[in-house]
Amino acid sequence: MQLLTLVIVGLFMLIVAVVHFIKAFREVNDPNGIPGPTQIPYLGRVHDLPIQFMWLKFKEWADKYGQQGFYRTMMLGAEFIVVTDEKVAEDLLVKRAKYNSDRPVIQSLFDSKSTHGSMEYLPLMGHNTYWARQRKLSHSYLTEATKAQYYGVMYFEVQRWMARLLENPEDFQHSIEDMSSKVMCQLTWDDPSLSEYCTKSAWGLLTQMSPAGPITNVLTPLWHLPILINPWKRAERKRHDEQQAWWMERLLTCREKLARGELRPCWTRQFLEKTSQKTSISGDYEASCVIGMLALVGIFTVVGPMSYWLVSMVHNPKWQEAVQREVDEVCGNRMPRLEDAPRLPILRACIKETMRWKPNVPTGVAHETEADDHYQGYFIPKGTRILPFDWSFLRNPVKYPDPENFRPERWLEPGWPTYKEPLTQYPTIKGLTSFGWGQRQCLGMSLTQDELIVGCGALAWLFNLRHKRDPVTGRELPVPLDRSNSLLIIKPDPFQMEFEPRSEERKKEALRLWKESEAKDRARRERWLRNVKEGKANVIKEPKVAQPTLKIPSPSPAAAVPAALVDGGEVRDGFSKTVQVVEEKSGGVNGHGGSLAEKAVIDVKKEADISITIARLDSTAYESKGLRNEKRGKPTRQVDCPGRLQWRRECGADQNVPSPGRLGHDPILLTWTTAAASIRVSQRAPSRLGAIDRLDRDPIPNRGLDALA
Ligand code: HEM
């Protein structure tokens, strides 16, 4: 009897599970929804989407389901729209950029979107205030460096690279990376000797954020295992802390060098001398991150097309000869410079065709939608990831006839769909789909183009790039066309090739040039230091650091609250604001109504008295005075305060507070849930410099950022 009951219960549960599964299956495969491969409830297509060369599977699906320019798939509950046509990307990511410019969470990084104020990875940040101000700053630094022709750094490093290739050609893959790393380390911290570590750190971050990196990026629930049995989280904690400490150390070293007058033009000097006075960047920590991130992102990106240039040239000797002829005609006995670019269309065409033929961000970088939307009659829910699938854009046979082959003439000869005049300006890689879309479009297009012109131009001037021959059999060693890593940003796997100097004269000239540049650089540095010691020119004093002020960057207090809950509001003064909430949801603290209506983040850098006042507009003011920031490291603290005030330190295991205590940051998340509230946060005893250096509103309104596109 008991057995029979068990069997009946078991059968019943099985039937319930099957019915539930069928219902879920129908839901995730709605015949009226966006076309795409059949989805398995909860899993999506995680079972047959390969981690290696994922873009090839995406392309297979694109050919099958992407007739309308997009298709849909799922991964462990996350919705994806894979965009396969440029027009659709334009519609969704440019025209609707206002609410399609967020980023998905990257599970294996702490606070990848900076939702909790980590402020670390600009390209991965959500569509929030940190992103807006860091993008503005990065854009202005990159533009200024471009105008100043990168302070000569690119020529210097490319000359060094040519000499290294002559002396040690076998090491070419390492020396490419080191060259682009040295360029970035000079632009960032005026110190090329940092390149080795910086490159390592760049690949470390890239691996951590890629689907082909830690398994926790795909099997995301694993990330939430307790830290003791979670090797992925422990490894990331170590990587992260080392990287952040290194960035901070760079900034502090630059400050010391600046004070001694030893720092030449670079982005950190620009920040210390000028920007720190009038920026919304919150302080040293954030500055070290935004500048450090720029250095990293400029390494693993440029390495791809620079390496694929070698592949293109080895496989297409006719085009190599054409580039060499053009460079010889224009530059004669010297290496190409940026001012030669208008007269080097074949070089530019081959660079652009290399990027089209072998795109180094083949899947594209996902945006995330911030609002429900409809497109071509289909519903796109908030939180959907939109993947602008670059491999597909660049293999569209209508725009790029014969897409599988290297055809630079498509940029040079009238009659091809992509031909554009004047040839002094076009082809240019600026605006290529590989650099992304809308408000999140890449900021490094000019830098990439310039570095490729100087670097690839120098290669064409100095070398014949050839297959290497096996010394025993005499046979050509293969240079594979389709072997690469599978990270978000790719580069070819190691291979062998020959760098044959075009003539003995050019070889001598390249070595002489490098010796001369190196000697000049050393002499300049020594002169600079001598002058400093003798108290002569070029001693740059850092301006006095002003007392940081509290800021509320959001222009409208209402904007931070879900629109339906808000009935206007006003900013009373710099530090306080009023929000009127007209509707409440159930739940909330202490059983009283009130979903999360507002929250603010305060950074308290050192011990300080602060006063936080929360007042219900319709009753007495509740005050919690003199909260001392003495309990460092305590993860959560509840303040006994009527009016359903809750505040806590934002130090949960998943919420990455930038090295609390160590680097001087100590953010407090403040939330309040009253029906109608005003809040005042102030520093009661500003006894120490920089005690409070940031008061932000979070979530951050996305309106008003369009101007930054
Ligand atoms: C081959 C070279 C490069 C490629 C293919 C590339 C590609 C991209 C892509 C696809 C994005 C995301 C766009 C989107 O979400 O729609 C991006 C963002 C970005 N790139 Fe590049 N990039 C390159 C070089 C560089 C360089 C040299 C720098 C600067 C040193 C740079 C700085 C950035 C920054 C700061 C962002 C973040 C923009 C934002 O989130 O608002 N990139 N890049």
From TrEMBL:
Entry cofactors: heme
Protein's pathway: Antibiotic biosynthesis
Origin superkingdom: Eukaryota
Keyword Transmembrane helix: yes
Keywords carried by this UniProt record: Antibiotic biosynthesis, Heme, Iron, Membrane, Metal-binding, Oxidoreductase, Transmembrane, Transmembrane helix
Residues spanning the membrane: 290-311
GO biological process, alphabetically ordered: antibiotic biosynthetic process
Pfam families referenced in this protein's UniProt entry, alphabetically: p450 (PF00067)
GO molecular function: heme binding; iron ion binding; monooxygenase activity; oxidoreductase activity, acting on paired donors, with incorporation or reduction of molecular oxygen
Positions that bind heme: 442
InterPro entries: Cyt_P450, Cyt_P450_CS, Cyt_P450_E_grp-I, Cyt_P450_sf, Cytochrome_P450_fung
rRNA-binding among keywords: no
Family in the record: Belongs to the cytochrome P450 family.
Name of the protein in its database record: Cytochrome P450
Organism this protein belongs to: Neurospora tetrasperma (strain FGSC 2508 / ATCC MYA-4615 / P0657)
